[in-house]
Amino acid sequence: MHPFVADLKAVLNTNESFDYLPFGDWTAGGCGLLAESLLRLVPDSELILVGRLAKSIPDHFLIRVPMEGDWLYVDYDGLRTHDEVIADFRREYPDKADDISIMPAAAFDFDPDDPDALFWYRDSVPGFTRHLERELGPIDLDRLDLAWCDDGPEPSLP
């Protein structure tokens, strides 16, 4: 496991972190809160949606960051490439496999009649962001580099 992912999961799997979620976990219901908070902490990151987007159904929020001429996607499940995110969702939802796509949240046409449907967590973002920053310390792009998977030190929270 990548050291940053181990650090992140160690923080997220605590009662203090779960207190920010009224329901669900970090992959179902809490992904938006996590992605919005990471967006504020990780330089050059962008909020991303994955799901049945052609049918106007975003299923998941995550962030992506530029990494060595490509994109690296970040969420509770780890650090993945575009193709790995798509493959993971197709495995998880085989009956919807052909409908899965990824796009920047800024390009998605959210339902104007229900602007809060996906953003119920927005009031929690500032507090949760401070919590993550306090527990994880600074998150720069070097900390997310995939080279740490093989060569890096063991996870160490600040």
N-to-C SSE string, H for helix and E for strand: HHHEEEEHEHHH
Q: What value does the average pLDDT take?
A: 87
Strand portion, in percent? 15-25%
Q: Using DSSP, what is the number of strands?
A: 5
Q: Cα-atom Rg, whole angstroms?
A: 15 Å
Strand order of the largest sheet: 4-3-2-1-5
Q: How many helices does DSSP assign?
A: 7
Instruction: Outline the biggest β-sheet.
Output: 5 strands, antiparallel
End-to-end Cα distance: 18 Å
| SSE-based structural type | alpha+beta
The total domain count is 1
Name the overall outline. globular
Percent helix: 25-40%
Unreliable segments (pLDDT under 50, ≥5 consecutive)? none
Topology:
Layout: H1 3-12, H2 15-18, H3 31-41, E1 46-52, E2 57-67, E3 70-75, E4 78-80, H4 82-92, E5 101-104, H5 125-136, H6 141-144, H7 148-151
Antiparallel strand pairs: 1-2, 1-5, 2-3, 3-4
Commentary on this structure:
The protein has a 5-stranded antiparallel sheet with strand order 4-3-2-1-5, with helices on both faces. The protein is built from 7 helices and 5 strands, in the order αααββββαβααα. The chain has helices at 3-12, 15-18, 31-41, 82-92, 125-136, 141-144, 148-151, and strands spanning 46-52, 57-67, 70-75, 78-80, 101-104. With 158 residues, the chain is an alpha+beta fold. It has one domain (3-110, 121-146).
